[in-house]
Specification:
Helix content is 71%, strand content 0%. The protein is mostly helical. It has five helices and no strands. It is elongated. It has one domain.
Length: 137
């Protein structure tokens, strides 16, 4: 297993690359994504997945002392979602700002930050405290 400082450096690099990838994907000329049979277009799932990844990676990239401050990641992610949607409004090639896209971004962000927080709590509760012997059931 990698030392913690190397793992954190890799996670920071991945988080930065993921963020740049989102910015590029949302600034690219509008792709024609097919819609699912329901009234929920496929691009909403894409927005959810992109911002869930953003939340997961940035929560993992932060130093452990800051991980408890998930409000920072959520706030930065929401600001990023608003900026990317507003930026789409001014792009000249068929992109448009959408409140529903921003809502999907927020939902994905909540999923990513929430999943990381739950996994961290589960991991801490599953590992023995210092001085406590692991059970041998």
């Amino acid at each position: 297993m990698l030392p913690t400082n190397q793992l954190n450096a890799i996670l920071r690099l991945l988080a930065v690359l993921w963020t740049l990838g989102i910015a590029l994907a949302l600034a690219w000329p509008r792709p024609d994504l097919p819609s699912l049979p329901s009234t929920f277009p496929l691009n909403k799932f894409v927005h959810i997945a992109l911002f869930a990844g953003f939340g997961l990676l940035w929560m993992g990239a932060l130093r452990p002392a800051l991980r408890r401050r998930s409000a920072w990641v959520a706030g930065a992610g929401l600001l990023f979602a608003v900026v990317t949607e507003a930026g789409q409004h001014v792009l000249p090639f068929g992109r448009a700002a959408s409140g529903l896209d921003a809502l999907a971004d927020a939902a994905g962000l909540a999923l990513g930050v929430g999943a990381f927080s739950l996994a961290s709590r589960w991991r801490r509760s599953a590992s023995p405290s210092p001085g406590q012997q692991p059970s041998r059931d």
